Amino acid sequence: MQDWIKTVPKAVLHDHLDGGLRVETLIELANQQGYKSLPSNNHDELKKWIQPKPNKSLAINLEAWDHTIGVMQDSDSIYRVTMEALEDLSNDGVVYAELRFAPLVHTFKELSTSEIIKSVVNGIKDGMEKFDIIAGVILCAMRQEKNSLEVVNLCIEHSDVVGFDLAGPEVGFSVLNHDRACDLALENNVNVTLHADWEVPEGIKEVVLDSKAKRIGHGSQIINDISFENEKVTFNNEAAKYVFDNNIALELCPTSNVQCGAFANVSEHSFGKLYEAGFNVTINTDNRLMSDISMSEEVNNVVESFDLTEKDILKITKNTIEAGFVKPDLKNKLLEKLTI
Ligand SMILES: [Zn+2]
Asked: How far is the CA of 64 from the centre of ligand 1 (A)?
């Protein structure tokens, strides 16, 4: 890895809190709580068990979430995981981070949804002060559940929350089933970003045109909705044109996409072509623990695959912060410090 990649200011919009724990924290929390279900309490063995397996169609270990969520059922653990996420990101040169999580899956013990959100918000506030990073939290509802209205209402009640997202399986679980939740968010000025990964061809349209999301979680498949004629981009449908014309940020997660089988490797990822075509691309980790990836490594993969320079990354960082949901005054202070 070239030296500048670690130190260049980086920004991440798409990072799941429950997908980014440190392995040692997972083990320590399990021990403290008497949580007996971990497949191993040995650091290296557990890391290996969680890590994506090469040559498998779905390399990401979905079972790992049972354990990370399993140990995040009390305020102290949720606060610790949030603080550590900001510490790790800051140490990796990240200056702006949005963390997301689904509050309703942390209610298995005694916590109320408000207590859960406050634990993360307090972690964000303290982490911002301690680790010199600007951060915000997005609340996720799950597409396969029927409680998205409740999650939007939590976004409205907690003014420190910066946005709303729909995550979870996409095939058979359209965002259109959550139209009332998205409308409610819109009416109450809650920022919306919705997952639209690679499996549903009409996903981008449903997210930006039907649901009016301000950003797209992933969105790499938009490459199928555009063509290149004499190096000029043309749009095959209204949704792709809308995304381009409105500078809608694509929260691209190259490593996660490769591990899920959407692309053979990062070099084949649509990132390069979309960047060249002038789409508002951002670089994201998705799940640092499950994908065994850091932000620097993610940026490095993109730099090496598409021959990008430090200037390119700084420009992407600036665009990423501008697309961020955190209050403008905090973003502007940060943007003033970034010189290209
Ligand atoms: Zn995601």
From this structure: 15
